[in-house]
Amino acid sequence: MKINEKLYELRKEAHLSQEETAEKLGVTRQTISKWETGESSPDIDKILPICNLYHIDTEELFKGIKKEEVNEEKKENKEKTAFVIALSVFLYFLSVIWIILAETQTNIKDEIVVSIFLLICALPTCYLIYYFVSLPKKEKIKKEENKVLVRIKSILSLITLIIYLLISFTTMKWGITWIIWIIYAIIEEIVETIFTIKEEKHENECH
Questions:
Q1: Distance separating alpha carbons of residues 1 and 134, to the nearest angstrom
Q2: Residue 65: partners with Cβ closer than 8 Å, 6 or more residues away
Q3: What phi, psi does 135 have (nearest 5°)?
Q4: Other residues' Cβ atoms within 10 Å of the Cβ of residue 197
Q5: Structural domain tally of the chain?
Q6: Which domain holds residue 83?
């Protein structure tokens, strides 16, 4: 929906005439008419008054995305993130359990034990990297703050992967170094929370 169509729809929903709308926004009736027909667009200094008049935020005005839909999407993303982290932690614990059980079996070669262990560790590692790096990029987040967030998360995941492999191959304590990914997930969640709070604060200023 174009912004002129959105303005017309909002005015009708608010049961306001063009004259009443013009008076509340401090413009002429002709200006309101031009906005709604697409002959011109609201000036920047009129965006917040329009949002306040119709009790909406800029997302709904320009993109037609209601705040309730944004909050619902954030809730779904948090639930999915929690599932990804929980599943990954479970797989890491499973890899440790495999090492413990394999040590009691003398007929299993060490090469097989290590190979299976690395395979189990690789599954959650690849899943975490895909979810926190590749998926946000595919969604093509348009907001500049979210683009910055994606870059930060990409750099953070790359650094974490380097540290994880470096420490793991140096110490060969794969049963312990997986904790690095839990620390990464916590730090990533803190960073995302900071950006979310900042975004919500910006949205509240539009009301």
A1: 30
A2: 59
A3: -60, -50
A4: 10
A5: 2
A6: 67-204
Q: What pTM did the predictor assign?
A: 0.37
Residue length, the chain?
207
The residue ranges of DSSP E strands in 39-145, in sequence order, are: none
Residues 71 and 23 in one domain: no
Give the position of tokens 């729809």. Answer: 9
* Cβ 21 vs Cβ 9: under 8 Å: no
90 token code pair: 């479970």
**DSSP for 111-159, written as a single string:** HHHHHHHHHHHHHHHHHHHIIIIIHHHHTT--SHHHHHHHHHHHHHHHH
Q: What is the pLDDT along the chain (207 residues), one digit of tens a residue?
A: 678 888 888 889 889 999 999 999 999 999 999 998 988 888 888 888 888 888 887 767 776 555 555 566 667 777 788 888 888 888 888 888 888 888 777 677 777 878 888 888 888 887 777 777 655 554 544 445 566 777 787 788 888 888 888 888 788 777 788 788 888 888 887 887 887 777 666 655 544
